[in-house]
Write a structure and sequence with these properties.
The strands form two sheets. The protein has a seven-stranded mixed β-barrel. The protein has a three-stranded antiparallel β-sheet with strand order 4-3-10, with no helix packed on it. The chain is built from three helices and eleven strands. The chain is mainly beta. The chain is globular, with a radius of gyration of 17 Å. Helix content is 7%, strand content 31%.
């Protein structure tokens, strides 16, 4: 199986978000917890294998080990709904420009922003929730369906920085048809 559309070698890490607290709790109609508007945006993020991003709310949380890092394409942001939308509203960790990251679900990729590659297993879609309509604007949840980003497992330690980065596919997805380990046949 070949990668969906040959990926560019170079992408841009537009933003990085490291959020120590879960900002969206309760009901969307009540609005998010009040925080500093720039809260969580950083110029670099330290990634740890199988643990996530150091300082983030999902770091080393057993329930989130396969989804501790979330990557999203800048091109998917619903700017027609809110021109200023960014990671602070979507609550994803890494915003990339120049790659349709949602097309790589099931693949393993490397991102290298100058400090060596960070390997990520792109496990599953990050589904937008009702909070998107509350914090971005009406229709944002629907606009983000199928392009809300990808939940990932970091497979290496490393550092990611805002700016230019190299994107490379490391491994193809394992065929579900051929992967029958652990299944019982009757």
């Amino acid at each position: 199986m070949s990668p969906p559309n040959a990926p560019p070698n170079e992408v841009e890490v537009v933003q990085l978000l490291v959020s120590p607290v879960h900002q969206y709790s309760g009901r969307p109609s009540e609005g998010p917890a009040s925080t500093d508007p720039a809260s969580g945006l950083v110029e670099q993020a330290e990634v740890r294998q199988h643990l996530g991003i150091v300082g983030d709310r999902y770091f080393a949380q057993p329930a989130h080990r396969d989804a501790s890092v979330t990557v999203m394409a800048a091109e998917s942001l619903p700017r027609d709904i809110s021109p200023d939308v960014d990671l602070r509203q979507t609550r994803r960790n890494i915003l990339l420009r120049g790659i349709d990251i949602d097309a790589y679900i099931g693949w393993t990729i490397e991102l290298d922003s100058g400090d060596g590659p960070v390997v990520l297993a792109l496990n599953r879609a990050a589904r937008p929730c009702a909070w998107m309509d509350a914090v971005i604007g009406p229709g944002a949840q629907r606009a983000l369906r199928g392009k809300g980003g990808v939940r990932c497992t970091p497979l290496s330690d490393g550092v990611l920085r805002v700016g230019r980065a190299r994107f490379r596919v490391v491994e193809q997805p394992i065929s579900r048809v051929n992967n029958v380990a652990g299944r019982r046949h009757r």
